Amino acid sequence: NISAKDILIAQDASRKNSILSNLNQVLFAGEPKQCDFNLLMELDDNVSTARNQRLSFIMSCSNVSTLVGLLGTFAGLSITIGSIGNLLSSPSDVGGDNASNTLNMIVTMVASLSEPLKGMNTAFVSSIYGVVCAILLTSQSVFVRSSYSLVSTEIKKLKIISNRSNNKQRSLRVESETLVEFKELFKAFFDNYLTVENLRTQDEEKKRVMLSDSFVTLQNRLLDNSAKLEQLSTLIDGYLVSNNENTKKLVDGVITITSRLSEGNTLLADNNA
Predict the structure, then answer these.
(1) Under 8 Å between Cβ of 158 and 36
(2) How many separate domains does the chain show?
(3) At which of 178, 195, 217 does a domain end?
(4) Residues 113, 156: one domain?
(5) Could you give the maximum distance between any two Cα atoms of the chain, in Å?
(6) Which of 28, 42, 48, 99 is most buried when burial is the number of CB atoms within 10 A of its CB?
């Protein structure tokens, strides 16, 4: 059987898994958005159940291996203690002054230590075996949990997408059944608003045209008045120039007459003398 991690890495729809069944077909074949929501729910439940079963089995094996290690440790300690007890309780035939008997006693004691050493070896090997198996099984549980978490995450994403699509279709159906009158009223209101807005725009356009025409007319009249004022100013300037010239001529005439009268008076005075 191919593990779930191999399916996720390869993303091959043709691969099968005995635990996840056709989950790879749902995830990697065709359009994932078109998956049945009920099928996704069932697959989610199956994945959760399989994950719990695998993790429970792995943790049970880890606990059993730990217990086996403890059992071996205690068994080795029991063998060691029993061997030491037998060694201590065995009768001694050693004499106080016999060197040969002393040597035999030492050899016998060394030979008797093999059983306690075997017991201690059994205890240490069992402990190491239990600890190593527990570590390996714990690592396996972490790997299995992460693999199933990836699969569960993908299924949840597909469920959200499918549920969102169903809710969208459902809301559209409700709108088509219950909000038809509201749509018609809103359409009538919007049409009326557009009509009023068009009339207001046309009225404002007319007012703008009238204001523009009035402004142009006023501007033309101001230009005409300016031209007339310039003509009047020219006439006044001409009149003033002409009046000044006539006044000058009149003054010159008066001066001439005065001088003539003075000359006449002088002549009369001369004649009278």
Answers:
(1) no
(2) 2
(3) 178
(4) yes
(5) 216
(6) 28
- Report which residue type is found at 143: F
CA–CA dist 34, 26 (Å, integer): 9
Q: Give SS3 for 21.
A: strand
Residues 160 and 253 in one domain: no
If asked whether residues 116 and 46 sit together in one domain, one would say yes
- Between CA 19 and CA 2 the distance in angstroms is 10
Per-residue pLDDT tens digits for 125-173:
888 888 888 888 888 888 888 877 777 777 777 777 766 655 555 544 5
Instruction: Select from 115, 146, 178 the last residue of a domain.
Output: 178
R_g over Cα of the chain: 63
Asked if 155 and 210 sit in the same domain, the reply is no
Tokens of 21: 């069944």
Q: What is the pTM of this model?
A: 0.40
> Tell me, what amino acid is at 182?
F
**Tokens 């060694």 — which residue?**
87
Distances (CA, A) of 112 to 108, 256, 257: 6, 181, 183
Tokens, residue 19: 């635990």
- Which residues make beta-bridge pairs with 21? 17
Domain that holds residue 195: 182-273
- Local structure of 153: helix, strand or coil: helix
| Residue 11 DSSP code | -
